[in-house]
Amino acid sequence: MSETESRFSPDVRQHKNVQALRSGQEYTRAAIYHLAARSSSLFEEYWGVGTTPDRPWRNAMILRFEHILIGLNTVAYQYEFVAPPNLYLSPYHHVCAWVCKYCVGPNIVHVTDEFYSQPLSTLGAILVHEISHRQLLTNDYGFGVGGIQRLSPDQRLDNADCYGLFARACARPT
Length: 174
Fold this sequence. Notes:
By secondary structure, this protein is mainly α. It has 8 helices and 3 strands; from the N terminus they run αααβββααααα. The chain has helices at about 10-35, 45, 55-70, 115, 120-135, 145-150, 155, 160-170, and strands spanning about 75-80, 95-100, 105-110. The protein has a 3-stranded mixed beta sheet with strand order 1-3-2.
């Protein structure tokens, strides 16, 4: 295997791309259903203490997740051997996928072998996270449940990982 070859065959990558997309769509639909059903069990954990799940807030969040679902329906993948060095990195976050937030054109998610190494439950959440950057222009303030717990409610609404993690939690409650 050369320095620029994937550890995964094109067939394996395509299969995981399809699985990730289906999971992302399932998670996003589950989030919409959860919000529409007025279930509040996950609100504070993902959106912050004191978040009021009132009707206007729920409707706004449903609309956000509907925009993510539209983005997922038009996603394309681009395999990259390594992530560009100018991407934000923290010691606790390894870049395995990214999008060009302000680019015009299709929703292209750039992925590395690290993406294909993730469990299926994580792949769907990663796609929701990445597409939220394109569809909602979200940012990366915190990663993982521990990282988002330190954010204010306003930061959480603008944090991509909150969307991916909330959607996954709605689809796969513990």
